[in-house]
Queue: 4 jobs
Job 1
Amino acid sequence: MNYDYSMIQSPRVPTRNHPSILKVYGEGKVNIEPNVAYITLGVITIHESLNTALSENGLASSRVIDALLQLQIDREHIQTKEFHVNMEYDYENGKQIFRGYRVTHMMIIQSNNISNIGQIVDKAISNGANYVSNIQFTVLQSDVYYEKALRMALQNAQKKASSTAETIGVSLHRTPERITELTSTSTPQTMINTMVSNVEFPTEPGMLSVSARVEVEYTYFS
């Protein structure tokens, strides 16, 4: 167990008029299944002509978006993450040779149906997407799960305090003197991929965890 206690008044035995402090730490964790996925994918085109590179990228991006809309992905769940143009060069015998213009259009796709992630990626690639960089599984309304983890952490702290008080033979005020909420964590599972195939692939989102940790101080006396 991770706890400590100390006398805060004086070395004398703690009494009702001179209680001391027992400090404990409580932890709680909730494991949950993800219910939303964010997919980062895009279209990259390279051509000697800037206008051609932009045109080809625009046409391919439009095909990708139309294909995603056909899969019942809401338009508001298709957002441009980045769009930029760079000049590409090759180097031969120490010389810089202009290769063309590289146009990159990356999008973030939100899917509230994680069972169709493979279909989304396959459809996007089949219609012009040539880069998939990240698939992240997480949960909507994570605050609900954090509040549950927080209640578990407080119950854990109460149990530790009661056990300690019973072991050392003192009386514990069950109402905490102070509660400090420590760092909370949520752990989404992230899959990093670079895919250009047109074959559907299985995804295993696994379980996510949301945890809470508290520091609780109780007063006690003999």
Job 2
Amino acid sequence: MDVSQQLVEELRSAHKVVALTGSGISAESGIPTFREAQTGLWARYDPQQLATPEAFLRDPKLVWEWYEWRRKLVGEAEPNPGHRALADLEEHVPGFTLVTQNVDGLHGLAGSRDAIELHGNILRTICSAERIEVEPSQTEVPPICPGCGAPLRPDVVWFGEMLPAGAMEMASGAVRDCDVFLSIGTSSLVYPAATLPYEANAAGAIVVEINPEETPLTPQAGYTLRGRAGEILPTLVEAAFG
């Protein structure tokens, strides 16, 4: 696809770039978006009713098994050209910050370093009481923390929970200081992440939306590129940096 030469020049000359990614880029690797219908055994469950502290207190076994199913999907997925293009972009831009709403760890597998994971990482396990990372070693479902005996849980942000300490502050600080902001594969509906492109806009950054569909951000974006991240990002990065 063709990309605006003006946008290519803006990206090439940028000293600081922030990229915010949402479920769309992971969907291109075969990972269902959170709100997509469940399949098989899980078809009768509403994911929003499972991803809460209350659900875990009520039925920790059910919630753990659902996340084990989701971990299996993630474990079978591979980074796509969109993930790899962002890792490549990081090598070319002096001040690059990657912020993701995804919990699948695919950015790290693609080579991105120090991504700000706003919603945690499904591949990590923590103690539900002490909130420290623990490597599960028992066959109990869910496993028990060897330190305090509390059930273990995935290290993800559930509905009604705060984001990881400092994550939003780091993201917001990078946004207020960036030259170009890329909004990639996100509906711009999930808060507080949805505030970031507007912060960038208010600070004078060039906001670029890369998404197949129109979103609430579209009217505010300086550039709108319609399509899949795995097709657009490699083309954009190649055009800017060769």
Job 3
Amino acid sequence: MSGTTLCPHCGTRFKIAKTQLEAHHGMVRCGHCLQAFDTRPNFAPEEIDPQLELPLLEDTLAEAEQPHAEEPGATSQDSVRAAVLQPLMLADKAVFLTGARDVEFLSKRRSRLWTIAALPLLLLLLAQTAYLFRIELAAHLPDLKPTLVHFCQIMKCSVPLPQKAGMMSIESSELKDDPAHGNRIMLIAQLRNRASYAQAFPDLELTLTDSQDKALARRVFRPEDYLPAPQNITAGLSANQELGIMLHLDTADLKPLGYRLVLYYSTGPDS
């Protein structure tokens, strides 16, 4: 089955066969305006008996090739040849997308469209990743921290130091009497940051106990309570570094016999 189709770009009509209509989903490139288009929406089939099509075409060609004198009312040789060759001339104007160049042309066009459509999604994904993992990124990539801080100024967030309690430990601690004051004790402890990056200083909770391990008093010490004066709180405890602590406490009449000392982070990094 054959028929005709219309280029929607320039209006040129082409003759097309069924095999060409089905190839590459009907996509062709117009030989007149060089635009690609789908042949199927404007396809108009020709109702011709296949048993008569081939003999009729051959007879017409044979008659057209034999020279004869023109008779009044008869079709001239040039007119017959033009009528026979017209479908071929029309078909030559449509370049069907069967070559590698045409397939490559459409593939590149689709790739460009996908790239343009995916770019905003990629930027959104990168921004979301930077927001969710900003603390880890700043810890492991210190050179990136200024960029993350600027990003957080826009997003109304912050880039605090990591607070991994599992990577911060009390290496040693001791509770002893203050020889200069009878009702005072000294808490001596050694903190260690075992992470490969700087961490925020933790909170320390001290519980004083009696002989039955019953709590007599409890107090939480913030970093500003136990850090030496020159220590920079915002800088945190550097990677694989230790910090010595000494606190003088007034126990009054409690007379504790034991203690418990734990570290923790009372507030996580802000969102």
Job 4
Amino acid sequence: MASIAIVTATSVEAKAARRAMPDRDVIEAGIALCHSGRVEGLPTVISCGLAGGLHDHLPTGTVVIPFDVLRPDGTSMHCDRDLSERLIAAARAGGIEPVTDPIVTTMDLVTGEDRRAWARRGYAAVDMETGLLGAARVAAVRVVLDTPLRELSEEWLAPARALLNPRLWPEAIWLARHGPRCAKLAAEIVRDALSSIH
């Protein structure tokens, strides 16, 4: 179990995970696993980071630990039960009641009516990585960042370019405030869940 890899998408998520777990293998695989070379062939991974919330009642900072993930190809991935239960227990020990409803992995940023459509189908959140992981054992901790009440521009899929757009600077300020906080929460839950695994 010491070989569990922590997979993150962005530098914000990776930095939080490395600070919380300096002794763990933390992989920054890129949005939609665009830099997924180090992820292939790993036996056990935990997807750790941010997600888009699909319901108005799940605000920024909501912890989602799913048992099931809908992949982009329409198939379902069942998360590793033991790892998921450890993550849930760690969240609860920290005073957080996680949402355990399924999440969906998409290849595009989900906004507007698409967000509401996924919510009606019973999904709690959306990410762009977890359902792409091909490891034998996968679990996930995703913390809601954007919500139906606080959507983000699709331009943030290319952050360096988005920062050059003055129209997006208010979003950049919001992201700088909430992104690291939410990523830190996800990382600390993973750290606490794995602290008893040697």
